[in-house]
UniProtKB/TrEMBL annotation:
<keyword id="KW-0067">ATP-binding</keyword>
<dbReference type="GO" id="GO:0005524">
    <property type="term" value="F:ATP binding"/>
</dbReference>
<dbReference type="GO" id="GO:0016787">
    <property type="term" value="F:hydrolase activity"/>
</dbReference>
<keyword id="KW-0378">Hydrolase</keyword>
<dbReference type="Pfam" id="PF02682">
    <property type="entry name" value="CT_C_D"/>
</dbReference>
<dbReference type="InterPro" id="IPR003833">
    <property type="entry name" value="CT_C_D"/>
</dbReference>
<protein>
    <submittedName>
        <fullName>Allophanate hydrolase subunit 1</fullName>
    </submittedName>
</protein>
<dbReference type="InterPro" id="IPR010016">
    <property type="entry name" value="PxpB"/>
</dbReference>
<keyword id="KW-0547">Nucleotide-binding</keyword>
<feature type="domain" description="Carboxyltransferase">
    <location>
        <begin position="8"/>
        <end position="209"/>
    </location>
</feature>
<dbReference type="InterPro" id="IPR029000">
    <property type="entry name" value="Cyclophilin-like_dom_sf"/>
</dbReference>
Length: 222
């Protein structure tokens, strides 16, 4: 069970942004609080705010310094922090994402299963057993973090880096599954690949998944 959350911290970032932080480490409660606050801000955006960007345990609030008095905005943010989570009244969007596990698509699957004392088939079944939640998007365009797996499936990142993995790579580490949308280097374990494309530059918004969405991973063709 997560420890009680500390009071949110409102931190100025230069003269153009505030960071509202709900925890110093990743937890279910801190992530949900960040997502809920970002949704509340979307519904009641203070004048002059130009960007609302939720992260794993914080929300970046970027504003136009020509239109905003920082002290006044800080007061508005504190009022919103004391509000309720009415922004979460609608059910989360649900997605079913097919994955080609193992082989050339998932070169680390066998080693991951071995470390966890499972066969590859047992690991895939355990991995797909839980409905995960989109924790945040970022790091690279369309990159998405999904969590949380049960403690029995927790595994640290690799000690060696994959210098480049293709779009659609399904990554596994630290109790989470991630999906790439662009070619990137990674220290995560590559367990599969999906044809699901989360980043489409000419769409508005360009990403299909958003924070709070629920993800069911299934073996491709099942």
């Amino acid at each position: 069970m997560d420890a009680p959350l500390p009071l949110p911290m409102l931190m100025p970032l230069g003269d153009r942004a505030f960071l509202v932080r709900f925890g110093t480490s990743l937890s279910e409660a801190a992530n949900r609080a960040a997502i809920a606050f970002a949704l509340r801000l979307d519904l009641r955006t203070p004048e002059g705010v130009e960007e609302i960007d939720p992260n794993l345990v914080s929300v970046l609030v970027r504003y136009d310094p020509a239109r905003v008095v920082p002290g006044k905005l800080a007061g508005e943010l504190r009022l919103l922090l004391s509000g309720t989570d009415d922004a979460q009244s609608s059910p989360p969007r649900q997605h079913r994402i097919e994955v080609h596990f193992g082989g050339e698509d998932g070169p680390d699957l066998d080693s991951v299963a071995q470390v966890l004392n499972l066969t590859p088939a047992e690991f895939v079944a355990a991995h797909n057993a839980s409905v995960l939640r989109v924790l945040t998007t970022g790091f690279a365009p369309g990159f998405v973090y999904c969590g949380f797996h049960p403690e029995a499936l927790h595994l640290p990142r690799r000690t060696e880096i994959h210098t480049r993995v293709p779009p659609g790579s399904v990554l596994f580490a630290a109790g989470q599954t991630a999906i790439t949308a662009t070619p990137i280097p990674t220290g995560w374990h590559v367990i599969g690949r999906t044809d699901f494309a989360n980043f489409v530059p000419d769409r508005d918004p360009p990403t299909r998944l958003r924070e709070g969405d629920e993800i069911s991973f299934v073996r491709a063709g099942s």
